[in-house]
Amino acid sequence: MSARAGPALAAPATVWLLATFAAPFGVVILLSLHPHADPFAPLFTQPSAAQFRAILTDSFYLRVILETLALGAGVTLLAVVLGYPVALWLARMPGRWRPLAFAVILVPLLTNVAVRSLGIVLLLAPDGLINQVLGAFGLGPIRGMLYTHGAVALALAQAFMPFAVLALYDVLQGTSPRVHEAARSLGASPAVRFWTVDFPLSLPGLRAGVMVVFLVSSTAYVSATMIGGKKVWTTGMLVWEEALQNLNAPTAAALALIMTACSIGFIAACGFAFARLTPWLAGRPVEAWSLPARLVRALDLAAPAAYRSLLAVALALLLLPLVLVCIQSFNDVPQATAAGFRAFTWRWYEAVLFGGAYVDSFRLSIEIAVVSATVALALAMPAAFALVRHRFTGLTALAGIWALPLSLPLVAIGVGMLRLLQLYTALPPFLGIVAVHVVVILPFSIALLQASVQQLDRAQEEAAATLGAGALRRLAFVIVPGLAPGLAATGIIAFLLSFGEVTVTSFVTTARTITLPVRIYAEASFSLEPTVHAVSTLLIIVTILALAALNRAVRLDRLYAR
Amino acid sequence: MSVTRREFGKLVLAAGAAAPFSIVRSARAQPKPGDELVVGIWGGAQERIVRQHVEKALVAKFGCKVSYVLGATPERRARAYAERGRPSFDVIYLNIFESRQAVKDGVTQPPSGTVAQFANLYDIAKLGGYGVAFNPVTIVYDRRKASRPVRSWKDIWNPEWKGRIAWPVYPGAQGTAGLLMAAKVWGGSEKSIDIGFQKIRELKPFAAIQQSQEQVLQMFDQGVCDLSIEFGSVCRRYAETRNPNLEIANPVEGQAVAMNVACIPVGTRNQKLAEEWINLHLSPPCMLAYAREIYYSPTVRNIEIAAELEPKLVLGPDVRKLVDFDWEHVIRMQPQWSSRFNREIAG
């Protein structure tokens, strides 16, 4: 293999990020070095560490940073514990039901954050579902469940669980049935097979899921704001408040960079821990995992019930917004977040389908998402191969750079872009937004595809090469079909992330590029009407149909699972 | 043809002298068919009303095109500041406390008589741009939970509300009003705000800190809170359609003024069109639509309101009762007060 192959594969993603992300990121760094807030100050000033000093010596800021990291870790744990059974369920699902199951998992990504938050409120409120159930047994009500770290963690776990599930799904799919047969023939019970076969082999997917969920949850601020009721603080909320409400870009920039540094530290620790757990990926010898006999008996006893309970809780949490969104889309109330059904109406669907503006925004969002997801996949695939199959100087640094947009709060990227607005608005508006969306979704795509590439069976490629297949034929007939489930999962996530992106888009939007989320966000800035529920319901139906079509064209499972 | 160095210098000087004139001339020139006016505004009902009652009339008169950049005020304001002097907007809508500072910062123009309806504006609506809607902030509460009606801002400190209040987040129109009114009724002012913070601290623990009108209505729906500080207009619609137990107080000290303000950014290329747009926004059809659909009160005097709407709006003498503040001072202190609020009240 040529020594230049690795850098060549890494080049497209790197060049894209240098062209589109380096400038706003540079602006954020320069702003963080301003001594004080002045919205009209030139970008280049005498560098000062005043902002960093102020933040690092302020107990309030330090507490918020620590709480944000703890929240990110808690959400990640919750998403993994609930996501694992769902990923197993999905991987074992018969092919014909898979599109529907995929749609269930994607419901949180298809519904507006206001709807998801309403779901959590209806669950945890003093008059909510949990208290009603408790009341039936003569217990409660418990009044303090909302506006707590636990409530925010639950809301974020619900929103980000799909990332963990899809990252795990592909690697669980990739475990050959022969391995299971071998374990079964050696007398391993289902619980033992899971802990000694499935779990270790799924660690690359778990790593991707943990990284993505931690980074998105530690930079989130909309759900935290809506469910935390300002009793829960995250750095994302502080960055937003300083940058936009106080026009204090330097403090916002410094906070964002400190948070980024913490996130990178977490990712590095995570990478180190997973590398220790998966020595076989680096070609190092490994001993089979074994479990003490007493633990095996306990697991055999408890595992089936635990699996079913966790799966039920996870699916209920995923489906909660779906139920709400469908009911609310026919509810004749003036505000989208109104609880309680008042009267049946079709008028929100009429507004969406015949109101003109929604349809235009919907079409534009679809176009942008299709182009952005395609570009992101085209850039992420070679990058994932570079990470998995090549070793060259600077690879670790490059991997860090690729993850940067994910670890920087999106609102900080938006603030950086404000200073470069003339540059972005000089581009054709469609291209400007695609450039930004690819930056946002590329790190997810690389992280998810990296796990998929690790699962590829290289023996098949070697066999094809031995039989005379050239590089292109191997790519078309061995690699791409082998990667199909991973590409499909990553493509869906990339599409939905682009389709739903609003934080950065709202900074670069122009009069001619009002995407659907920007329109909904603008509506929410005054009063959110139930049209948003009609949009979500239509989107869920379209997704189920699109996934069914996709499942016919490209099988969502691996070759040897068929 | 050859140009000497001296002639070249004269040409450059002449071009430099003429450049500002050409900018001013193009900005003041009569609009041409096909010109595009870019308006930064909130979405939802507000977008619908201006499309119906402002855009149609403007397009019919000038043959121009109107485009909207929809979004929330913080993003719009941050963008206007980033583009100072070379704006992509021709008209932007801000809140009262941001609009006056924007004029002072050279981001937007002060209002002037070039907008015909300027003469009919209430005085309070003539600062920092053109006030287009009063939307005062007051106390709202669940009447079933009150031992007696709320008639004063001081009633918030009645012990019966302890632990049942959703205090509005600061900054924001409602949170700003809450803080300033707390200071005012307890002997302070925007210039001596300490008493405001101290009295709000006394109200802790709060049932929640509310961050938007959507959220507070949800809190009333779910029994999370029984009292809050919010826009009366939105709450009135909520009370009529969803929760008849919600009472909108009219405190003796007055309601805190809040106002949507239409502003023309400095450097707009469509000055005349922007002025015409605002004039149409201030015209009776648009004012009445706002009053009818979302209970926003008119900011001009030359308007007749239907009798059934009158009790739901702030009109005539009631406008003088709205409590106003030194908004330039308020916005200057915002970062400091925001930091204090986060640490002392919300955190």
What do we call the CATH homologous superfamily of the largest domain in chain B? Answer: Periplasmic binding protein-like II
Give, in order, the helices and strands of chain B. Answer: HEHEHEHEEEHHEHEHEEHHHH
**Any idea of the CATH class of the largest domain in chain B?**
Alpha Beta
- The global form of chain A is globular
**Overall body shape of chain B:** globular
Oligomer: heterodimer
Q: Detail the poorly predicted runs of chain B.
A: 15-27
Runs of chain A in which pLDDT lies below 50 for 5 or more consecutive residues are: 558-562
Description:
The complex is a heterodimer of chains A (562) and B (347). Chain A has 562 residues and is mostly helical. Helix content of chain A is 74%, strand content 0%. Chain A has one domain (5-561): MetI-like (MetI-like fold), CATH 1.10.3720.10. The radius of gyration of chain A is 24 Å and the shape is globular. With 347 residues, chain B is an alpha/beta fold. Chain B is built from twelve helices and ten strands. In chain B, the strands form two sheets. Chain B has a five-stranded mixed sheet. In chain B, helix 2 packs antiparallel against helix 10 (284-294) and helix 4 crosses helix 12. Chain B is globular, with a radius of gyration of 23 Å.
